[in-house]
Amino acid sequence: MRRLLLVPLALLASAAPAQDLRPGKDMLLTPKDAVLMLPPEVLCGPVVERMEWSPDGVHLLLVRQVMPNMREVIAQMAKGAQPSPASMKVEKELLVWASGSRKLQTVLRLNASTDRLESADWIPGSSQIVTSVVTTAPDQAATRTIATISAQGQAKAIFQAAEGEYLRATVHPTKPIFSVCYLPRIVPASSNASLNIYRYDGQRQSSHSLPPTMWNTYWEPSRDAPALFAYNLTPGVRGTKPEWLRLNATSGKYERAEPITMRAPQPAVAELVVRQENAPINVQKASFSAPSVLLAAPASKEDGVALVSSDASQGVLSPMSSAIAYVHQGSALVRPLVRVPKELYLAAKQAAEKTLAISNAKQAALALIIFAADNNDTLPSEGGDWRSLVDPYLKNPGLLSGFVFTLPGKNLGKIESPADTVLGYFPGPGGRAVAYADGHVIWKPGA
Predict the structure, then answer these.
(1) Rg (alpha carbons) of the chain, rounded to whole number
(2) Rounded distance, CA 52 to CA 401, Å?
(3) Other CB atoms closer than 10 Å to residue 397's CB: what's the count?
């Protein structure tokens, strides 16, 4: 099994510079593992406004704004023509990417001129999203609609309210349920106000009348029924502390509750975290900073940070730390993460460095031999910048950095045994790649 794990690492290392095993470059170390970032996969084009992983990390929700006829508009403007209003239509899309099938699907499309997306949230323990959309059709009163949408695009409207009415959905932080509060009006209180509890699939579990002035819902992580709170809205009386009621899930009745401290659940100390930093960039005479997304292992004592992408933002790590999504120039991309035991990574890294040293030594030997052939069989002298003289004979200029040259100024034609004469070497992990005057290279361990 250990040998099998080494194979993909060695293959990835051999693909440099597109992918290599250097920490900070597509790789970082945690106290136990090495985390390799695979090449990015483009999910969709611009303009992505928001991304959120489902609680199980299986799906990724994307919200983006798009102009379907962008090319037509640009073509018309290039000709000096005024684009038609119809071609200037802007849409808001909800898309879901499935990490298993690697497929992206549009689950909701809205006309940005008439529809406004208020919220879109995953329901824990499910592949369902609950949305709130406000629609303002011409010559009609605005309406707000609460709906559930599956990751496969199956939508179900569950509640609708007219303009001026209060309607809000609140998702339970850990369980596959959510609540919808409805009030025909806030002040004065209405007897038709209701609190509705729904399952993740939009099936209503229960409905309860709302007490006067109580419409704000708060889910406690460990409870199956929500608590309600409100401030005193009596004219001339300013409420400073909210009053609390808790719904009894068994009896369906409200009970007076002690004040509840509303806090977001404190996450456990994460092994991997996403960081956003600005990196300085110099182009000719211009200097500016570009946002970069980094992946970091806070507990790591060495090589614990890797660059995900430069000129990027909105880095979001999946709940299982199996992938990281981010936005680059408005487009959404994702990089899968692969973990291997640190000892296997170190072994693969040494093997890759050894292979690279041998390859570089062969290229260096060939370049020096060709240089000598063009210069009366004489190798460059050690004095001066001999590397710059040999660089034109290399595919990768600068490769000779680190090469220890042992035959400066020698005449290759006068060497009696080129196969036994060391031309130079590259040091490597646990040894060196030694090049000989006839061009062959061998690895000498412990040298």
Answers:
(1) 32
(2) 45
(3) 13
Q: Which of 256, 277, 299 is the endpoint of a domain? A: 256
In a domain, 149, yes or no: yes
- Looking at 230, 256, 282, which one is the last position of a domain? 256
Alpha-carbon distances of 149 from 103, 107, 239, 326, 415, rounded to whole Å: 17, 7, 38, 23, 79
Rounded Cα distance between 57 and 323, Å, is 9
Confidence category of residue 283, pLDDT binned at 50, 70, 90? confident
pTM of the model: 0.77
Question: Per the domain annotation, does 266 fall within a domain?
Answer: no
Q: How far apart are the first and last CA of the chain?
A: 31
- Per-residue burial over 84-111, b = 16 or more CB atoms within 10 Å of its CB, e = otherwise: eeeeeeebbbbbbbbbeeeeeeebbebe
Q: Does some domain include residue 351?
A: yes
Tell me: pLDDT of 87 over 70: yes
Q: Are residues 103 and 226 in the same domain?
A: yes
Q: How far apart are CA 98 and CA 100, in angstroms?
A: 5
Query: Which residue range is the domain that position 110 belongs to?
Result: 46-256
pLDDT of residue 306: 93
Give residue-wise pLDDT tens across range 26-77: 889 999 999 999 999 999 999 999 999 999 999 999 999 998 777 777 777 7
Buried-exposed string 119-129: b where 16+ CB fall within 10 A, e elsewhere: ebbbbbebbbb
Convert the pLDDT of each residue in 251-267 to its tens digit. Answer: 888 888 887 877 666 66
Q: Encoding tokens for residue 256?
A: 């007076």
Region 321-326: mean pLDDT is 96
DSSP of 88-112: G--EEEEEEEETTTTEEEEEEEEET
With a cut of 50, say whether residue 1 has pLDDT above it. no
